[in-house]
Amino acid sequence: MSLKVIIPTPLRRFTAGAELVEMEPGTVREILDRLDTRHPGFRASVCDESGSLKRFINIYVDGEDIRFLDNLATPAKDGSEIAIVPAISGG
What we know:
5-stranded mixed sheet, 2 helices, single chain, Ubiquitin-like (UB roll), 91 residues
């Protein structure tokens, strides 16, 4: 009874280099809270001071962008895959 969270390279400093973390199912907000408990500082790297997802961070649950679902209230069930993807800019 777990799901996988794919950690992007810039955030692996919080997870001791782990690129994949297994978590218990719940909403994306609950999972981020648990990640922050296990890896302090993680939530502040993806959420702003109000608790909303930072503009340049994208989170996908089973390939679906949570901004088009229920945002941080999006549920992730057992066996789901959550991908955290920082936006890349350039020109």
